[in-house]
Amino acid sequence: MIAIGEFARLGQVSVRMLRHYDAIGLLTPHHVDPFTGYRFYSPEQLAVLNRIVALRGLGFGLEQIGVMIREDVTADALRSLLSSRRDDITLEHHRALRQLADVELRLLMIEKEHAMNDVDVVIKSLPAVRIACRTAVADSQPEIGPIVGPMFGEVAGVVARAGGIPRTPVAEYMADDDGRIHIVAGFAFDGDARSLVGGPLDGVEVRELPAVDEAACVVHLGSMETIGVSWQSLIQQLPARGVQPSGPGRELYVRAEPVDDQSQWVTELQQPVTAAS
User: Fold this and answer.
1) Cβ(168)–Cβ(270) under 8 Å?
2) Taking a C-beta distance cutoff of 8 angstroms, is the pair 269, 237 a contact?
3) C-alpha gyration radius of the chain
4) Which InterPro entries does the entry link to (predicted)?
5) Same domain, 216 and 269
6) pTM here?
7) In terms of residue numbers, what domain contains 42?
8) Tens digits of residue pLDDT in 262-275
């Protein structure tokens, strides 16, 4: 028999941890002295302790380990737990690589410019957005501004006359093979789409911009005249983060007032991305 202190030393765990394992039924001593309460373990239990330590090193929780070290555990159950943990580790690995790429990029910025870039890229998921909107096509980038502005005004008028409240403005942009930009512009809308039917303006519809698993996002402060610079900075930083554009980009106008002074505007640029091939 091995006293708890020696057993802890052999297994390279603390006595406190062994007592915890005993309390939760994960590894109970082979014998407990009824008079002193001293715990003793059999030499064979060292193999069980080593397995617990190894599984803890793989990131399994104690509840999962309890299942995995049971004598009646099936191979299918073990395979399922290990496969799930493999998927978790793979995801953690990808996140760590992305964080490493971000750190390397910022170090490069500092070395080249002696300062952090004003545009900070964050990769996050985007929820689906239901919007009342209009669509249009611009032949070139300079045409977007004159087209989009009136679109928002027209949609806002239809929503208001239908008894709704124009909420957060959203725009989506997608370039085709000919270089034309397809535009969807409108407002978040949670009302009845039928209320917009027969309104005074044609072409207003309700559609859902789908949820996005990963999007590279930056915040643009100020006028729409310089938003192209922020978009360019965002796109240029994607390769260093191991991702590439996937799908149409969005602009979420967090604050779009006062209308006559865009210096106070706050716009989040949202570019869906996938892992670079």
Assistant:
1) no
2) no
3) 29
4) AraC_E-bd, DNA-bd_dom_put_sf, GyrI-like, MerR-type_HTH_dom, MerR_fam, Reg_factor_effector_dom_sf
5) yes
6) 0.59
7) 2-73
8) 888 999 999 999 98
